[in-house]
Design brief:
Number of helices: 7
Shape: elongated
Structural class: mainly alpha
Helix content: 55-70%
Oligomer: single chain
Number of strands: 2
Strand content: under 5%
Order of helices and strands: HHEEHHHHH
Number of domains: 2
Distance between the termini: 38 Å
Strand order of the largest sheet: 1-2
């Protein structure tokens, strides 16, 4: 894939940094860290260039079962996490389905979550998650129904 350089660079940075913790190897720690930093810089520069052209890139491709954000976090790649794309991806992980709703509504849901036994919050989270998935399908041009046979798709176009 065209973006394989990002997870591969992060993987290499993590691999190099893991060599430093192996007591059986005699390595120049400064040189290894310099190489790891260079690998991280390649990933950082690439994601910054891509993100300036396409902000939808924050979906973050995976390498194996780990996303680039997970690779960066596990490999102590702080500069990569500080990029605009990294921060947006972290926000998506942190807020989940609450990221794209009005901030005042998001804060209200968070405050409601502090009330013990509140059943409204789980229902709201499911609703917001369904809305987010529907919007993603629209953005990708995929089928809009989720297979549930609900009545939500009869509205035509426009805002509703």
């Amino acid at each position: 894939d065209q973006f394989d350089i990002i997870p591969l660079s992060l993987f290499c940075a993590g691999l190099l940094r893991s060599l430093l913790s192996n007591p059986d190897l005699t390595l120049d720690d400064e040189e290894i860290e310099l190489l790891a930093s260079r690998c991280e810089s390649i990933a950082q520069e690439t994601v910054e260039r891509v993100y300036t052209l396409d902000t939808s890139y924050c979906k973050q491709p995976t390498y194996g079962e780990a996303s680039c954000i997970e690779l960066a976090a596990n490999n102590k790649s702080a500069r990569f996490l500080q990029t605009a794309a990294g921060q947006t991806a972290l926000d998506k992980k942190w807020y989940g389905c609450l990221l794209n709703i009005r901030p005042s509504l998001r804060e209200a849901v968070i405050w409601l979550g502090m009330v013990p036994g509140n059943l409204l919050v789980p229902m709201l989270l499911v609703y917001f998650d369904e809305q987010r998935m529907l919007e993603e399908r629209r953005h990708r041009g995929g089928p809009l129904d989720s297979g549930g046979g609900g009545a939500g798709g009869a509205g035509g176009g426009g805002r509703g």
